[in-house]
Amino acid sequence: MKPSLISVIIPTYNRSHLIGNTLDSIRAQTYKHWECLVIDDGSGDFTRELMEFYCDIDSRIKFFKRPDSRVKGANSCRNYGYELCKGEFINWFDSDDLMKENFLERKVAGFIDEVDMVISKSEFISYVGEFVRKENRTIITNNLLEDFVCLKVSWYLPDPMYRRKFLTGKKLFDENLFKGQDREFHIRRLLEVPLIIFIEEYLTRYRQSDVSISNDFSPAVIKSNYDAIKRQIAMVVSKSSSKRIQLYYIRDQIKKYPYLWNLLNFYKLFFPGIEIFKWFIKYNLAVVSYKLFGKGNLFLKG
Question: Is the pTM for the entire model greater than 0.85?
Answer without folding.
Answer: no
